[in-house]
Amino acid sequence: MKERLPYAKVAPEGFAALFGLSKYVHHGAIEPKLLLLVEMRASQINGCAYCIDMHSQDARVGGETEQRLYALNAWRETPFFSDRERAALAWTEAVTLISHTHAPDEVYDEARKQFSEKELVDLTLAIAAINAWNRIAISFRSVPGVYKPGAAKL
Hints:
The protein is mostly helical. The protein has a single domain, classed as AhpD-like (Up-down Bundle), CATH 1.20.1290. Helix content is about 70%, strand content about 0%. It has helices at about 5-10, 10-25, 30-45, 50-60, 65-70, 85-95, 100, 105-115, 115-140. The longest helix has 23 residues, at about 115-140.
């Protein structure tokens, strides 16, 4: 696999703006371990190999277990995730697949039970950011396997 073009070098201001959003959410109201699960789940849905590789590495460094990472795409069928994590994952799926789901009220209502208004906005910004990163990485064929944990200082 070969990267199509070095998008960060071609449009550094755009890259910096999106990186700024990611930095905001990683210093926002949502706990880091949950953010990594959300990023990985959205990346699984979108089929972004680069981001799945990146976020699974970062999750391991952050203390996530192999069992939970392997079960993430089947989170509904496992007992490994808390109610807060389940609400975040359901919201991640609804927002990532928004053209199909239209963010249903029942998913929103469950998320509101688990998250404050600020947390839910920050969570939604995190989902929007990872979906943007997925679309860029897939479009320009970012090569999985080259990322090193801690390389992106947020």
